[in-house]
Amino acid sequence: MQKPSLKVALIYLVTLPFWVSMIVRVYSWIIILGNEGVIEKTLRALGLIDDMDSLLFGDTAMLIGLVYSYIPLMILPIFASIEKLDPALIEASHDLYGSRLVTLHRVILPLCQPGMLAGAILVFVPCLGAVLEPTLLGGGKSMMMGNLIQLQFGAARNWPLGAAISIVLMTAVLIFLVARGLRAVRRETTELAL
């Protein structure tokens, strides 16, 4: 357990990127990862490299941008579910000689599963429509669903295909979310009946 002031400071640091426009965040990664960027200059100053290929325009740069953009959406639901944990359950696990690993595996993770699932959904859905990271950081080499839809509505001028892809994607996500919600309701009803 952390002090309340430290918790507030950490939550502030996690939510800080959301106070800046997505375009500014992506362009900051271009400056950090590009030729003569912060990483390359630091490695040169330390004498670790003489010349380095750009870290930009690849899957790694795109992944870094996506993680940086959407990590707060994963952290906040997990934090909320951890905050709701009853400390007595963790103490009971230790009283029953459960190691930290056993307590994590058998107590904490099952109780935090709804928060992890909520975070996964909150990250998965916006990542489906991500356009900036694959275009600017990935160099347009990798095709993601957002880029494909944008291409159909933009350069290809194939609006019916773009609309069809959008509807199929939206329907698939909706079916998944409804099925997951119904499963959770059934599980809760079963637990209440017992």
Give a short summary of the structure.
The chain has 194 residues and is an all-alpha fold. It has helices at residues 4-15, 22-33, 38-45, 59-83, 87-95, 100-128, 132-137, 145-153, 159-193.
Radius of gyration: 22 Å
Could you tell me the number of beta strands? Answer: 0
Provide the succession of SSEs: HHHHHHHHH
Briefly note the structural class of the backbone. mainly alpha
Helix proportion range: over 70%
The average pLDDT is 85
Q: Which strand-content bin applies to the residues?
A: under 5%
The total of helices stands at 9
Oligomer: single chain
Largest sheet: none
Overall 3D shape: flat
Number of domains: 2
Weakly predicted, low-confidence segments:
none
Compile the SSE list and pairings.
Blueprint lengths: L3 H12 L6 H12 L4 H8 L13 H25 L3 H9 L4 H29 L3 H6 L7 H9 L5 H35 L1
Helix pairs in contact: 2-4, 4-6, 5-6, 8-9
